[in-house]
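User: I would dearly like some help making sense of a protein record. This is the protein in question:
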Amino acid sequence: MKTKKLLAAVLLSMLTLPFTACDNESDPVNEELAIKSLVVLNANSEGITTLTTANIIPVMEATNPLTADEIEFLYALREDEKLARDVTTAFATLFPDSKPFERISLAESNHIAAIEKVLSYYEITYPALDAVGVFADSTRQSTYNELIARGTSLIEAYKVTAFLEEESISALSTVLADVENNNIELLVTHLLAASKNHLKAYVRQLASMQVIYEPVVLSAELYNSIITAPFAMGNQYQVHGQSGLMTNTRKRAQTQNGLSDGPKGEVNRYGECIQTTYGEAPGSTSGEGRVGKGYRGGR
């Protein structure tokens, strides 16, 4: 009886071996990539937070093309980061001895580049940034003008930028509930972490000047949880491709042959989507905190 059982076990192992070997040899590249991981978020001891743009595409997943609403949302997100960059740039000029403004301004430029990486990944054509302090959207233009006018002293400038980060934390936290695209979710999650770190950085500067910052947008509970927590650091993400997985393999092959079948979407400087792969433009979503038009009160 034992001999028969042993023979059966040997035969079973012989039958399953070819299938196991086939699985192991089917995609050696993916096996190699599966053990690799990259960090996207970086924060220094002051809380200045950047994204490693070279690591963004390799950790992104292959997804469906972007909808009109998703394209408009990414553009609105870029305009919000431009708003933060332009405000900190203006304050860095007004208060040259305050190094955090200059450093965070550079970090906000990095965030803009990260968003543009995602747009480029999906082969979306988008306009160049307007000049510093200039916005095609009237809502953001008014916000910029108002924030600059409030920064009449170094203390008030820190309060203004802390308030701006509060708004970003609130808006990004809300919009995460509506994001369905995994790559957009990855981007928003990292920008949210950066906003929390920058809020802490501004509050620390105010504390060093014996000023206690009172939250304006966030609840006291959420604000305290952010302020008392360590600076958010980057997680490890699995690499999905040697150079990132393009969403359109035909486009990739044509590009390698010096050909192109055009962009997969386009957005103008007013944040209006005028072309998508699906042919559904402009976007239909409206309402603050939603993916698409109306994000944070924009067009």
The beta strands are 37-39, 41-43, 49-51, 124-125, 236-238, 265-267, 273-276. The CA atoms of residues 53 and 114 lie 6 Å apart. The chain has a mean pLDDT of 81. The chain has ten helices and seven strands.
